[in-house]
Amino acid sequence: MKQPDVSVIIVNYNSSGYTIDCVKSITDNDVEIIIVDNSPLPGEPERLKSIDDARVKIIFNEINSGFAKSSNQGIIASKGRYIFLLNPDTIVIKDCIRKLVTYMETLPKAGAVGPRMWWDRDKTLQSPEIIMPSPLEDIKHSLAGVSAFSGLIMRHYAKKNRHFYTAALPFKVGMIPGAALLTTREVIEKVGLLDERYPLYFEDADWSRRVLSKGFKLYLAPDAEICHFISQSARHCQGESANKFRYSESLYRSRYYNRFFHLVSNGVSGAIHTFDKFDKLGKIGKLIKPGKPGGGVLTGGLTDLGRITTPPSFITDGCPSGGNSSYEHSSDGYSKDKFLFQLSTDLTFIPSVGMVSGYPSYTISDEIWSYIHDGVFFTRFIELASYKPISTWRFEKA
User: Fold this and answer.
1) Residue 140: pLDDT above 80?
2) Which of 75, 180, 182, 338 pairs with 290 at a CA distance of 20 to 30 A?
3) What pTM, to 2 d.p., does this model score?
4) CA 9 to chain centre
5) What CA–CA distance (Å, rounded) separates 135 from 257?
């Protein structure tokens, strides 16, 4: 086998079915695929060994070494000039890797490039831009729950989402998630490997920050695409994953923000909730709560769909800007950039997945419904002419 141009690194944890499908989706011939297996479940190694592909090399770990350390194992064992970190619960869409390599070579000062990430093969919902955690973002999130500020903050994030979901050309971002990140061996030599102190999560935020500190740029390439079936490895051990998330987040924050910034952000958040508790926000605005329609992000009211077991549909005829409530389609049946649809587990919709469309109607696809976790979700449509919400829904997947 000739020297590979790209080394794809996949860390498997109890996800062999997804990993096998991921490998099948990679149609490029000039790649090597290194799978680092951390699975404790019986049968996982045997299923991985059944992969009949000359491009594949598998490293079996006796213990779960964590995502960062296992990714580094794969990088060290790789031979390609380009390194593509890829989650096992992904499907690579045709020409994705080739396009990422081209952009890595042609974009100014590129340190890493990431693809557009869809939540399903039908390309209905997209993952949003990942915002690196910071005290300022904490304050924005807290204020987003106060009706007096929610409109302003909603508009800020809606504009960012609109650009992120509709951009056709590569653009700079503050972070690239480790779920799908392409870089070069030269960049890694200058920046370093992933920080292995992070057991899970935030290692990509940390590495992205170090890339930027070295003068490189990070880009999102919208025409390079993958499907990412979010958190399928983590669902096997949700409690453990949540603990690792909190630990890694604490480590990241302590590394990059001093105690003063934490005190300020915590003080603002605490003050908001304290004022609400004693009902002293009359002149500032009430905190927005589930089941409390009207005002702020709940303009248009909240419809509670209750506990449901089948994919829900969302459609509305409201029009806060006073425009045509029928929302006629364009001649080609689709008019872009009229409405933003958002799905989130948080009533502030920070963060949220979504899409931009020409008509305020959406049904969660069977594929997305099959893998999202049980629990409470919120959805809404925002009219982009006015950046005002039309309708908001709550449902509990059972």
Assistant:
1) yes
2) 338
3) 0.87
4) 19
5) 8
Instruction: Give residue-wise pLDDT tens across range 276-288.
Output: 555 444 444 444 4
**Residue 318: which pLDDT band, with cuts at 50, 70 and 90?**
low
CATH of 6-130+173-237, one of 3.50.30.40, 3.30.40.10, 3.30.413.10, 3.90.550.60: 3.90.550.60
Tokens of 103: 């952009």
pLDDT at 299: 44
Residue among 134, 117, 132 at smallest CA distance from 202: 132
CA Rg value for the chain: 22
What mean pLDDT comes out for the span 346-372?
Answer: 93
Q: What is the DSSP string of 148-175?
A: HHHHHHHHHHHHHHHHHHH--S-EE-S-
Question: For residues 258, 262, 264 and 269, what is the CA-based torsion angle, rounded to 10 degrees?
Answer: 170
Dist. CA 327–CA 323, nearest whole Å: 9
More confident residue, 146 or 94: 94
Helices 147-166 and 135-143 meet at what angle, rounded to 10? 120
CA distance 302 to 379: 10
Query: Cα–Cα distance between 78 and 9 in angstroms, integer?
Result: 8
CA distance 147 to 128: 23
pLDDT, residue 67, reads 94
The structural domains of the chain, with segments of one domain joined by +, span 6-130+173-237, 296-397
The pair of structure tokens assigned to 253 is 């924050």
Q: What is the pLDDT of residue 302?
A: 87
The residues, any chain, with a CB within 8 Å of residue 284's CB and separated by 6 or more, are: 146, 148, 275
Which string of b and e fits 107-137 if b means at least 16 CB within 10 Å? beebbbbbbbbbbbeeebbbbbbbbbbbbee
> Given pLDDT bands bounded at 50, 70 and 90, which one contains residue 261?
low
For the record, the structure tokens of 282 come out as 């009359």
DSSP 199: S
**322-326-332 Cα angle (round to 5):** 120
Query: What's the chain's average pLDDT?
Result: 86
Identify which of 358, 379, 238, 363 has the alpha carbon closest to the alpha carbon of residue 304.
379
Omega cis (within 30) before 351 = yes
